[in-house]
Amino acid sequence: MKKKTFIFSIVFSMILLSSFSVIKMETRKKPVGISAETASKTGIIDLKIRSLGGHQEECIEAELKNMLDTDTLIRFEAGRRLKAEDSTLQDILIIRELVVRLAANELKKINLFGFCCRANNGSPSKDAVFNVGTMTDSSWIKLCQLLSETTYPSSVIQSAVWVLSNNHAINSIHNDNEADFEKMQKLYAYLSRVKGEKYVYPWYTLVYEADPQLVFSNRPGKMHGKITYNLPHNANVDMIVRNVDNLTVATIFANQAQNPNTYDFRFTLDVNKLPHGKYHLLILADNQVILKKEFVF
Q: DSSP per residue over 186-253, as a string?
């Protein structure tokens, strides 16, 4: 009898443990809390959203008033596009999900982490009014999740958002930190899939000039690149840039004596004086072209 009781106890414990595991896994898949949009529209909360000034990171303040006599959880989803009531201002895309616990009838203010998703519009001034907006589609939501999984520089996050919102080129996303190579690979590959482009890690990226009157100037200031070339013999090497008329418009280095080797070369080129268009980067060994790469901005 004792043996049967012991076996039953073990089986019951295993079933109970298994049940808890299933519940935990199922719960993990379900969103936590009530969407701020739903809660606002159904009168669960009174919601006011305003700009703290600017268009990046914790640039939005939300004031929530719980209208219920019970505690509740409110969720601001990653991928929610907060709509500026002034149509000349940028909308803000929430990048990091935030769940807020409100006690019964509690009033609380919280900051939301988001970025501009209308590059051609003005940056919101302090106290500019927003409404709760709508959820973006799955490609935007997945981008937000990807950007939240690890730490990216703010400039990378902003440029990645503009790739979707304003159809910017993928090589408009620049990151100085070489240690982020694997993270950038993942980001570039995802955005390439969304845009329907073949994924190739960009051999150059562009940094755009700052303009105090504009959020995005669309004026490339610097081009950062990395190329690999093989030199089979001793030679005097030149690295130049030519336009579509085959005129040399920039010289990165000239008449540099080099030994036979494979070279990985990083460079930065000022392009702020060059007009938008198509160009070629050339490596010449004793005046013979050994590498030619096209770039456009």
A: HHHHHHHHHHT------SEEEEEPPBTTBS----EEEEEEEEEEEE-S-EEEEEEEEETT--EEEEEE
Instruction: Return the biggest CA–CA distance within the chain.
Output: 97
State yes or no: pLDDT of 268 exceeds 60.
yes
CB of 75 within 8 A of CB of 33? yes
Q: Which domains can be identified in the chain, with CATH numbers? A: 34-206 (no CATH), 220-296 (2.60.40.2560)
| Cα 193 from chain centroid (whole Å) | 15
pLDDT in tens, 123-156: 999 999 999 999 999 999 999 999 999 899 999 9
Return all residues near 131 (Cβ < 8 A) that are at least 6 apart: 49, 82, 83, 85
The C-alpha angle with vertex 231 and arms to 228 and 237, in degrees rounded to 5, equals 90
Q: How many CA atoms lie within 13 A of 153 on its CB side?
A: 13
- Quickly count helices (H) and strands (E) in the chain: 5, 16
For the residues of 10-64, what is the DSSP string, one character each?
Answer: HHHHHHHHHHHHHHHHHHHHSPPSEEHHHHHHTTSEEEEEEE-SSSSSEEEEEEE
**Matching residue, tokens 């051999």:** 203
Residue 154 CA neighbour count, 13 Å, CB half: 10
* Nearest CA-CA partner of 87 in 118, 114, 63: 118
Residue in this structure with the two tokens 């988001």, named with its chain if needed: 114
